[in-house]
Amino acid sequence: ANFSCKIAIDDSLGAKASGEIFLYLSQINFDEKKMKKIFWMIAALGMVAFAKESPVDFEALPAKAKQMIAQNFANEKVVLVKKDADFLSHDYEVIFESGMQIEFEQNGEWNEVKCRGCQVPKAMIPQEIQIKIDALYQNVFVVKIEKEKNRYEVNLSNQVELKFNGKMKLIDID
Q1: Mind spelling out the 3-state secondary structure of the chain?
Q2: What local confidence, expressed as pLDDT, does residue 111 receive?
Q3: Of the four listed, 34, 125, 140, 141, which is most buried by Cβ atoms within 10 Å?
Q4: Which of 83, 155, 87 is nearest to 116 (CA)?
Q5: CA-to-CA distance for 60 and 70, rounded, in angstroms?
Q6: Please, which pLDDT band fits residue 41 given cuts at 50, 70 and 90?
Q7: How far is CA 31 from CA 2, 26, 38, in A?
Q8: What is the mean pLDDT of the segment spanning 142-158?
């Protein structure tokens, strides 16, 4: 079976170019490797369809997350806890009355803390990162910190974003 479609491209001057693309589906050779790729793509799309975000009780948080909140945010009032579940895993988001937000992985490890008009507790900032911030800037504080497997991103109160690698070395400033 033949399939064709027209594509029109507008550039900044308003000129139009068009062309036709013909796909000859009957000539495509679907070998085992291609079929596996197609299967996994369909499976991934199915997993996205199962993603669900819903409110849960504070007690549904992993113990490690509850402990971190008690240690670092004891004076904050939790107004909402959301669980974001997909096919294979889930994570949590805790929102406080002040507007501050914390995201946790399913094991209770935090991966992002966002503060509005206040600072991320210094106990949550790796010492090497805090030393670098203090050396570069005066009278600023961390308003957001995000950690991933091999890096940290830190937003400061002066609108500067710092990026650190897994060895806590500064690799970029935006």
Answers
A1: CEEEEEEEEECCCCCEEEEEEEEEHHHCCCCHHHHHHHHHHHHHHHHHHHCEEEECCHHHCCHHHHHHHHHHCCCCCEEEEEEEECCCCEEEEEEECCCCEEEEECCCCEEEEECCCCCCCHHHCCHHHHHHHHHHCCCCCEEEEEEECCEEEEEECCCCEEEEECCCCEEEEC
A2: 95
A3: 125
A4: 155
A5: 15
A6: low
A7: 20, 14, 11
A8: 96
The first and second tokens of residue 118, run together, are 């206040």
For CA atoms 41, 42, 45, 51, the dihedral sign is: negative
CB 79 within 8 A of CB 97: yes
CB 166 within 8 A of CB 174: no
Q: Which residue has the tokens 């209770």?
A: 108
Rounded Cα–Cα distance for residues 161 and 85 (Å): 29
164 Cβ contact partners less than 8 Å away, ≥ 6 residues apart: 128, 129, 132, 151, 152, 153, 154, 170, 171
pTM: 0.69
The pLDDT tens digits for 58-75 are 999 999 999 999 999 999
